[in-house]
């Protein structure tokens, strides 16, 4: 079968492309911006890519077109598919019908931590010899790929609440039918498609309705938004972190902790990750893997060998003992937790936080006060003010209790840090986009400065 994918270079759609190719389908696709690493990853497995949405890409006519949720009416390729009556389907629905229908699906949902926790669960199953399939919105470094079909009944998926397609406004995750469901946390996000938290809770309630009675739902015991959602109706077994599963920190930065199951210490995790949020993610991963048949001891041992997903407090380089980190954080809660984890690790060493408020929710002006509070653990916060905001990031930064400075472009931020960063400093760059390649540009600038000083 010839499968053509519109919007193929997103992490989710690119994962679907890789899985379809591994099933023996002929796979082609297009996107507005075709660039590495996704373009090279797809081309390396024999997928032909087209840049743009010209109708020439439909020669020969595919058997089915998978339409990504970034595609909308008015797009030339979308209009061509509709006008020619070419069969089309959303990515989540295709995944259900062609991959998930007969699998033990482990769905990882929540506002934060989906990618990391999904990667942990996939790795714990792999470590235990279960060879799971997975589709994750990032690249787990234990695997070096974002998706694979797998060799067993188990399939781990990052269960995203974002909508499925322009013709299917249900959340992606209602298509996945998980047997094991993790709900890590629940906050308001995605203001471009959800009016309020209640609208998101409705979609999570729909997800809960798809979990079989013999399945398991894992969630934090004390999260009111999740508890209110489950109170709408739950027909599956429930287990809770903070009740059935607990942890005790051994090190305050989260790099070592005890695992408790039903109030009994069952082992200790010693790993490379930092932060309370990652301890909570790890505990959920142990619980989810255990439901799929992994022993607690194997899960704990596996976490010690887990390598975090790229762009999760990832060290991009160090020059003259100035360390540059890259992190995907873009919601105030994630920013807070990431900074807390780094602060616990580095103590009183100076932290520069560099933030691009890039998400649609941020740009619409939501979470403004929470955003200011989120960066207070940093010694100095540098902000890139996106063009066309309906509100002033500069005025918001002026209300910060800790130093915060706005810039118009990335070059200004790089130059500022080149001048002011000193040995021992930590520079934490946070964005859910490419941030105009600021990480490498900064490392190059710091290297240039170091070479000049040596002359």
UniProtKB/TrEMBL annotation:
Major enzyme class: ligase
Catalytic activity, reaction form: UDP-N-acetyl-alpha-D-muramate + L-alanyl-gamma-D-glutamyl-meso-2,6-diaminopimelate + ATP = UDP-N-acetyl-alpha-D-muramoyl-L-alanyl-gamma-D-glutamyl-meso-2,6-diaminopimelate + ADP + phosphate + H(+)
Keywords: ATP-binding, Cell cycle, Cell division, Cell shape, Cell wall biogenesis/degradation, Ligase, Magnesium, Nucleotide-binding, Peptidoglycan synthesis
Pathway this chain belongs to: Cell wall biogenesis; peptidoglycan recycling
Gene Ontology terms for molecular function: ligase activity
E.C. number: 6.3.2.45
Function: Reutilizes the intact tripeptide L-alanyl-gamma-D-glutamyl-meso-diaminopimelate by linking it to UDP-N-acetylmuramate.
Protein's name according to its UniProt entry: UDP-N-acetylmuramate--L-alanyl-gamma-D-glutamyl-meso-2,6-diaminoheptandioate ligase
Gene name linked to the record: mpl
């Amino acid at each position: 079968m010839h499968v053509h994918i519109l919007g193929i270079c997103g992490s989710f759609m690119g994962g679907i492309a890789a899985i379809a190719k591994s099933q023996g389908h002929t796979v082609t696709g297009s996107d507005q911006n075709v660039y590495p690493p996704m373009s090279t990853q797809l081309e390396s497995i024999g997928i032909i890519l087209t840049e743009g949405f010209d109708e020439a890409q439909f020669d020969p006519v595919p058997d089915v077109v998978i339409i990504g949720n970034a595609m909308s009416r008015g797009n030339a390729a979308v209009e061509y598919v509709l006008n020619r009556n070419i069969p089309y389907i959303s990515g989540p629905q295709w995944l259900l019908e062609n991959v998930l229908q007969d699998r033990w699906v482990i769905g990882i949902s929540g506002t934060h931590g989906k990618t990391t926790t999904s990667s942990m669960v996939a790795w714990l199953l792999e470590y235990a010899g279960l060879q799971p399939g997975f589709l994750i919105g990032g690249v787990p470094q234990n695997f070096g790929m974002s998706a694979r079909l797998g060799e067993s009944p188990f399939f781990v998926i990052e269960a995203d609440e974002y909508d499925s397609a322009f013709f299917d406004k249900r959340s992606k995750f209602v298509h996945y039918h998980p047997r094991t469901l993790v709900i890590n946390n629940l906050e308001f996000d995605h203001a471009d498609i959800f009016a309020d938290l209640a609208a998101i809770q409705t979609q999570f309630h729909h997800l809960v309705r798809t979990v079989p009675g013999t399945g398991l739902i894992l969630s934090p015991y004390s999260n009111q938004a999740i508890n209110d959602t489950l109170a709408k109706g739950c027909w599956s077994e429930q287990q809770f972190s903070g009740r059935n599963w607990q942890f005790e920190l051994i090190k305050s930065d989260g790099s070592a902790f005890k695992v408790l199951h039903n109030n009994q210490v069952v082992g200790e995790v010693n790993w490379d990750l930092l932060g309370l949020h990652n301890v909570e993610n790890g505990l959920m991963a142990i619980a989810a893997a255990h439901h799929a048949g992994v022993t607690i001891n194997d899960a704990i041992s596996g976490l010690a060998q887990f390598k975090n997903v790229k762009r999760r407090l990832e060290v991009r380089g160090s020059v003259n003992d100035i360390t540059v980190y890259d992190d995907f954080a873009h919601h105030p809660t994630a920013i807070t937790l990431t900074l807390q984890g780094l602060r616990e690790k580095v103590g009183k060493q100076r932290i520069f936080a560099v933030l691009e408020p890039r998400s649609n929710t941020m740009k619409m002006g939501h979470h403004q006060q929470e955003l200011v509070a989120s960066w207070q653990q940093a010694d100095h916060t540098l902000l890139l003010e996106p063009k066309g905001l309906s509100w002033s990031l500069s005025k918001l930064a002026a209300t910060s209790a800790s130093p915060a400075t706005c810039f118009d472009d990335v070059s200004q931020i790089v130059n500022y840090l080149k001048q002011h960063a000193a040995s021992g400093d930590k520079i934490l760059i946070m964005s859910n986009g490419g941030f105009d390649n600021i990480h490498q540009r900064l490392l190059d600038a710091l290297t240039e400065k170091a070479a000049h000083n040596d002359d």
